[in-house]
């Protein structure tokens, strides 16, 4: 039961995570589509209004209608668009979408997009206003109309119909569905502005969402009231209409639901929320408009009015449905916002549940990685790249239109994003699977067809000698690189001929280019990786050789079996093992010798003590014969010498085994030398040599054991006095160089010195006759004590000149008294 529940929790964690992320991404794409569709903060605020007549769009349209109707009344040019904040707006109605789209152009000419859904039947009706800057400049002085443009109707379809108006040009895309037709229609200004006003009236009169009467000098010029009671002067509205706008020649009066709207405020027009209508103190009415009377009524609940236009390339025209479109936009925006909200809530719910089961979700991810890990790496790469390539292919028209057109076909982009949502989600989850696979399975690229082929070739290649393997491997690099360069050059030559390619052929050509670059880059990367590995292996082998030379026998080098230096490293490890065994055997022998000497010395020490005691007793006897007293003196001398030798052997044995007690302290090196010379003053006077000390007067501090170092210099000076040539000089000096203090004792030997003898070895003597009474331990003790105090001891022989050096690192600490 527990196992079943555990599996259920794993499934719950995985499913809720999948649903939560999918819904969240879908919500993000929904918002992205809304933004691409041109939704703004003002649109969102408008959608939250309870009445469409409270929206900014309604105000914008009412201002525009009033401006156009004043031009129609005064005989000015009529533009079925208007300019707001120096931005020219064109209106386009699509028979497929039933809504408006807008295009803008910075030079005053409006470029309007027709919207289509299919390459075979796509139609839209276009009303476009274009403004000629030169004509406008000529007309400004003679006629102050609100707009200096013309009203033009046009249409465009994907097939590019022939026989249309010669002044209208169409630029259809040759791509498949999802592209945008750009239709730019221009018409020269008509000599009779009245005819243009008549045409505008014909376009508007069929829509009863907006009632209007246009009078000039008490003559009614245009009206679509058709028997309904509309009297702006007396504030009378027909049934079903609750908004009234009346212009009396000097001011504008507005009424909504029977209540007057204060539009002028303090009488000053500002850009912050004021109605853009004449009658302000700083926005007075033009003289020619004072005889105009305009009445506009807006329906409480707008309805869709459609007038079929057969001919001229039109399918349907919905020119008067702007008010109805406001309501539709409000409803659509609100529905989209609700959808976004509930999708967000659902995604958060699933993500919270998935978080509660995150441990089980991770286990599900690992289980999924076990499945994906069995797939070849190439298959996983293709599974990601192919859908991603299709996604990029379908997004290319959007990018191309954004780059080349410089306009915003909002509905098309929104529709494209909505269509591609499943593909975008599929690409996302495929990428997630790839990341999960890479995170849970180490070195996922090793489970690939390419790696298997390379391994089989590598196994066969290891049969060749090292030199031949290197040549065969690096010979492949120029071959592959040369082939890819030839392929790339061929593609570039074809592209340089300006040959027109279809979409598929272009994709193939660019794919070959990318393939050539990738193969070359991968080949270079493999070469560099192989070179780096071989260089690293060679460096490790060299380091191992240096380590063996320095005596490090504890760290063998291991290289993978496919390394080119594996055999060489194996041989090196065998040599290292042999040397280590030989050195260990030598160390064991040396240790046994030291232990033997120590044991023998200990065994000798006990009877030697008795001999010395009995010699002392014999010395106390009186009236001994003279020759017996001589015997006792000889016994005393030899027993004391033997005692000293046994003690020296003990100390050397302890130093060799690392058991010699050492007390490190700060001492004055110069003072130590002077004190040793002072204590041996009597011995120096009796010697047949001259001692020349060269010791600085200032303090020179080192860290060492004072007693041990006193014994070191005592042995060195005694050795120099004993073995120097009669009448020669002994030099004792102390020098400092780069923080290192070096004390030296130099003498001229009385006998010939051999450079092949290690004089610091135990029981090694310069006088092979052994008649000088020495034990051969003086220099050995000096070296052992110096090294035990963390110093360096060495000797130098040049002909008969013998020099012993003792080196310590100088320290700046306070001097401590030398005992």
What does this structure look like?
This protein is an alpha+beta fold and 819 residues long. The chain has five domains: 2-38 and 330-447, no CATH class; 42-329, no CATH class; 450-547; 567-642; 662-811, Histidine kinase-like ATPase, C-terminal domain (Heat Shock Protein 90), CATH 3.30.565.10. The chain is built from 19 helices and 24 strands. Strands 18, 19, 20, 21, 22, 23 and 24 form a seven-stranded mixed β-sheet that branches. A six-stranded antiparallel β-sheet has the order 11-10-15-12-13-14, with helices on one face. Helix 1 packs across helix 7 (358-372) and helix 18 packs antiparallel against helix 19. The longest helix is centred in the C-terminal third of the chain and has 55 residues, at 566-620. The model is unreliable at 80-188, 313-318, 405-409 and 815-819 (pLDDT under 50).
